[in-house]
Design a protein that fits this description.
- By secondary structure, the protein is an alpha/beta fold.
- The protein contains 10 helices and 8 strands.
- Helix 2 crosses helix 3 and helix 4 crosses helix 6.
């Protein structure tokens, strides 16, 4: 990932610009360049995790996020109470490891659907999506996948969407803020939650060192209609190197 950082001038400059914006608000002993490089390095760890998904079971994922730690007992019980009784929609950002969270959920609670991106290579797509499916996360791709997720939620299903991405051409957007700076992101996750009456839950995981160990964070009290990005400020503040945002993110 150090080589990728050095060989990709545009990505390096964009990551550094994003890092400079958050730097005054986060716990980081260094400048924007050092934070951007660390984000590339942490993303490399995520890619290794993704390739090694076939070595993990849902039970392994559950242990990686604390397992039966009493600190999470009330949250797991609340999710169990909602599961298949009301639609649940997890709002996820490009941070930490979201696949581990999905596998943990399927072990403790049940299966879910995830809206996934095309990874740009058919073989890689098959490898990653098949492992997600095996861990209890049914992949849904593109606009057709979006319709699948909406139908699933209307039947009291559970789904997850990565929402912190640049909007596409002519895509409806929402104006939000992150650490006080303006951001335009697609508003599809809010529209889906509203149309399905889903419980919208911000969800993230912080990697603990270089081991396959994570601290899950979720906001079960989040109220739909509010901005989503501010809900992730605490995890970004404590682990800014685990945010993988290599495209222009903040408004000028």
């Amino acid at each position: 990932m150090d080589a990728a950082y050095a060989a990709w001038p545009r990505g390096r400059a964009t990551a550094r610009a994003n890092a400079e914006v958050v730097l005054p608000h986060v716990e980081w002993d260094g400048d924007g360049s050092s934070l951007a490089r660390a984000q590339f390095q942490r993303y490399g760890e995520y890619l290794v995790d993704a390739v090694r998904l076939d070595e993990l079971s849902p039970a392994d994922c559950y242990q990686a996020v604390g397992g039966d730690d009493p600190a999470y007992a009330d949250q797991w019980r609340q999710l169990e109470g909602w599961y298949q009784r009301r639609p649940i929609l997890f709002a996820v950002i490009h941070f930490g490891n979201w696949d581990i969270l999905g596998g943990a959920f399927s072990h403790r609670i049940g299966s879910s659907m995830v809206l996934v991106d095309d990874l740009g290579h058919p073989t890689l797509n098959r490898a990653i999506q098949q492992q997600r499916d095996r861990l209890g996360m049914t992949p849904a791709v593109g606009r057709g996948g979006m319709r699948q997720i909406i139908e699933h939620l209307r039947e009291n299903g559970t789904a997850a969407i990565l929402f912190d991405r640049p909007p596409g051409l002519n895509e409806q957007t929402a104006s939000e803020t992150l650490f006080g700076r303006g951001v335009e992101i697609p508003n599809e996750i809010h529209r889906i939650a509203e149309s399905t009456n889903a419980k919208l839950i911000p969800l993230a995981s912080i990697r603990d060192g270089h081991r396959l160990s994570f601290t899950p964070t979720l906001d079960l009290d989040y109220e739909s209609g509010r901005g989503l990005l501010p809900a992730f400020e605490p995890v970004l503040r404590s682990a800014p190197d685990q945010w993988y945002q290599f495209r222009e993110f903040f408004r000028a």
